[in-house]
Amino acid sequence: MALDGEESASFCHPAWDVLVPARAAYLASVSPHYDEVFWDVAQRVERAGSLGKTDIAALVVWKRLSARTPWVTALMSLPDSQVRAITEQAVASVQDLGLSRGKAAQAGRGVISELPGFVKDDALASAILTSAAPTRMAVYDQHVQRAVNFLGLTLTDRSGRYGRYMDILDTLLKHSGGRSRRLDRARCRHCLVLGWEEF
């Protein structure tokens, strides 16, 4: 199912009935300190306007990803100034309020794909983009995909998935009926919304 038109409003209300309790259950299951690394990176991005290799490494740990991969070696072989030049463009893209949430996500994701290891998988790329705009972007990963599937929505892995995911979130937020304000953003692993971990 795609979320568009009047159907989206009628779909979103029951979706929030599932998402808000799932979010609360997730928050109850994790340490309130888990996201400190993410917020440290977000603060550095706010000051610097870009992410360096150290920031990306911190997000690898935060996402619990393996660093024993060829792309990490390739990334670490680049000068930090080159990584920062690329991420600076991505930061500007996701912070561009002249673009819709989905278009900003798509633009930022396109820029991040210039870095080694970021051509296809959206999990770490979305963490980078979310650290650049934590109240606008959200992390995408396998938990998100399961939740989207559970809700009966369509989100394929074809090019542009992260932008389409942000369009889904945008629609859910527009039709939240105030329920999105009940989510504790200070402890939100996926920063914008949603207890995807429960799915």
Can you give a write-up of this model?
The chain has 199 residues and is mostly helical. 58% of the residues lie in helices and 0% in strands. It is built from 9 helices and no strands. It has helices at 5-29, 36-48, 53-62, 70-76, 80-94, 101-112, 123-132, 142-150, 161-174. Helix 5 (80-94) packs antiparallel against helix 6. The radius of gyration is 16 Å and the shape is globular. The protein starts with a helix and ends in a 25-residue tail after the last helix. Residues 182-199 have low confidence and may be disordered.
Overall geometry: globular
Report the total helices: 9
Which percent bin holds the helix content? 55-70%
- Nearest-angstrom radius of gyration? 16 Å
How would you state the average pLDDT, rounded? 84
DSSP, total strands: 0
What low-confidence regions span 5 or more consecutive residues with pLDDT below 50? Answer: 182-199
The helix/strand order is HHHHHHHHH
The biggest sheet, with number of strands, parallel, antiparallel or mixed sense and barrel status, is:
none
Report the portion of residues in β strands: under 5%
Distance between the termini: 18 Å
Q: Which structural class matches the secondary elements? A: mainly alpha
Provide tags for this entry:
disordered C terminus; 9 helices; 199 residues; mainly alpha; single chain
Question: Would you spell out the secondary-structure blueprint of this structure?
Answer:
Elements: H1 5-29, H2 36-48, H3 53-62, H4 70-76, H5 80-94, H6 101-112, H7 123-132, H8 142-150, H9 161-174
Helix pairs in contact: 2-3, 2-7, 5-6, 5-7, 6-9
